[in-house]
Amino acid sequence: MEKNNRPKKEKGTPGAKKLPIDWDFVKERLALFVENVDIAAELGIHYTTLEQRCKEPFKKKTPELGGLGMTLSELRQQCRARTKKQLLAAQIKMAMGTTVITEKNNKGVPVKFKHIMPDVTMLIHLGKNFLDQSDKVKNEHSFAGFIIEDVQSTGEFLPPMLDESQGELPPMLSDDE
């Protein structure tokens, strides 16, 4: 008996035959960001079975009956990292523009090409996410030991500045207006 007087759960069916797992299918689904539970359901097994079988050592003679010798979490990270790398490469190609061969002659020599123009939106996206570029201008000033930070978004309305000739701030909209 376990804690709280509950009977101990039996794991699996004793003597049951192991169902083969198509690890290439599992890897493909993980690369497409499908969750473990959904992959297990597609295979017709419980997700804990999938996790346990993945940890089992690889068997050369019957790879579908063995595991991969790693946790399912590690496998998911590997598969998703590969997909992210491929996505980034495709985004960079799209952002930079590319030339594609559209026709080859009977000797396999390219004779027609199509140029794909750079995608400005993709360039902006990659610049912001991978090059730390921003639409915002950030200025820092120090005054009496304090750091004053101005963050202004380019292209947006900026409040009027102090008119030095008058020595006072211009009128601003109050909460009433």
**Level of helix content?**
25-40%
Report the span from N to C terminus. 73 Å
Indicate the proportion of strand residues.
Answer: 15-25%
Radius of gyration, taken over Cα atoms and rounded to an integer in Å: 30 Å
Key features of this structure:
177 residues; alpha+beta; two-stranded antiparallel sheet; 4 strands; 17% strand
Structure commentary:
With 177 residues, the protein is of the alpha+beta class. Among the domains are: 18-79; 97-130, no CATH class. The protein has five helices and four strands. The protein has helices at residues 23-31, 36-43, 47-55, 72-96, 120-130; strands spanning 98-104, 110-116, 136-143, 146-153. The strands form two sheets. A two-stranded antiparallel sheet has the order 1-2. A two-stranded antiparallel sheet has the order 3-4. A hairpin with a 2-residue loop joins strand 3 (136-143) and strand 4. Helix 1 crosses helix 4 (72-96) and helix 2 (36-43) packs across helix 3.
Q: What would you say about this model in short?
A:
With 177 residues, the protein is an alpha+beta fold. The protein has five helices and four strands.
Give me the secondary-structure topology.
Layout (H helix, E strand, L loop, with lengths): L22 H9 L4 H8 L3 H9 L16 H25 L1 E7 L5 E7 L3 H11 L5 E8 L2 E8 L24
Antiparallel strand pairs: 1-2, 3-4
Helix pairs in contact: 1-4, 2-3, 4-5
